[in-house]
Design a protein that fits this description.
Helix content: 25-40%
CATH architecture: 3-Layer(bba) Sandwich
Low-confidence stretches: none
Strand content: 15-25%
Oligomer: single chain
Number of domains: 1
Structural class: alpha+beta
Number of helices: 12
CATH class: Alpha Beta
CATH topology: FAD/NAD(P)-binding domain
Amino acid sequence: MDFFDAVVVGSGFGGSVMTFRLAEAGRSVCLLERGKPFPPGSFPRSPRATAANFWAPDHGLYGMFDVWSFSDLDAVVCSGLGGGSLIYANVLLRKPEEWFVRDDSGAAGDEYWPVTYQELVPHYKQVETMMGVQAYPFHQEPYRSTPKTAAMREAAHLRGLHWELPPLAVTFANPGQRPVPGVPIVDGEQNLHGVPRYTCRLVGECDIGCNFGSKNSLDLTYLSAAQRHGADIRTCCEVRSFEPTADGFAVSYLRRPRAGEEDGVDRPTRCVVRGRRLVLAAGALGTPYLLMRNRSSVPGISPALGTHFSGNGDFLGFVFKAREQQEGRSVPRLLDPSFGPVITSAMRMPDALDGGAGRGFYIEDAGYPEFVNWLVEQNVLTASEHVLRFLLRRGWSRLTRNPRSEVGRQLSGVMGKGLLTATSLPLLGMGRDVPNGRMRLRDGYLDLDWDTAASDSYFGRMNRTMRELSSKLGGRYASDPLSHLNRLITVHPLGGAPMGRNWQEGVVDSHGQVYGCPGLSIADGSIMPGPVGSNPSLTIAALADRSADRIIYDFKS
């Protein structure tokens, strides 16, 4: 049985940072990731491969997308080496300093952050350096012609909101060189996959996996560095249970040696690995679920387990059929959401904590792959009169034996102008919703109770602002249709094992160490006592970097 200084469960932003930091400090580390590796070039694009790109191992599916559906909310997370960094939109914004709330009123949904912004600043900087952040080079060609970025800047200024080009974990340019799409990244093949990488090709595929390696995902950054420092990285290893031992912890997992292969039968093998320290980093859904299923192994755990769940205020809206004035007449305004990375810019609505009114939030432009445009426009075409008119014309030409054989103009008419997708743009919102959700086990499954009514004013303000932005762009507005059913989708689930000042208030302390269970730490989004407000990845990673300092110190003392 292998024995390590530390066993880390999960390779998301918390687990990858922790694995690297401990390995860099000379400690033996074993990382267990349930998903498989996804090297650049391996992300599915065909309908057949995409249909299998979901996580349901009991049914032979070992894809990236793991979708959880609860009574009032659906959550999308990732399974694969590198965790959520494989499918997130690359944004590494810091949590605003004023949003580190310290509300200990005891009211439902209160939040108290036992760590401050200033304490996280050096860790923010460390993660930003490791992830190689670059802002979207909007002021240079060909990036300057990105329609959605220009539209967001204009709408934000007209609405009086702060607009910015946020730090992105994307390589647009090699060091010291001007940004050019699609050129080889210097030393880009020096990663654990051993494959070359290329600068961003502006194809909007960030959220389904970047086949060009332009995303500085965790497998290409932290995990590659951790492997060079000797970390033992094991994929297709799903942790099921753990228990304390005399010298640390024994962690039991299922090893699927052929997970994801289309030929053969998956025969999982139960394995056990031991470590002096155990770090849970399975995400805001996975870690609480693992703790609840193994509650007998942590009898002294806080009653706060399962509390303070938040969707980080995630909300989706759409601008349709934008228009603008040119030479005194109204014409379609091209937004072209498929050009560029998924997110290029962000605007911020102030919070009551920093001079605003109500709970603050961010709104960001959203892109998607070009094939989505084809899917939408093709569905419109098949139901349109353009096709019928073309068929009638061709039939008439055949009957009358018309000698005119050139039909390019007619075919162009069948295709239409593609303005529905070209003049539309999704808007992504996130911010400070009320973290009053509670997780529990029901019949062995993870269940979630979340009173969305407590956040009605927040979502109402978000909805109104998106509508105003759509109006500034001369477009029509529509919110996510599920929101009308009081049902939301989050890609940023947080909480469930929150930080607190003591055992009664939180599951872990400000360094991620579990109260009442020496040697056990948590390093993922589950430790958030409330919403981050901005995209949470950077804050999760910074907290993990801070927690690693404490564990390294403990090893030395």
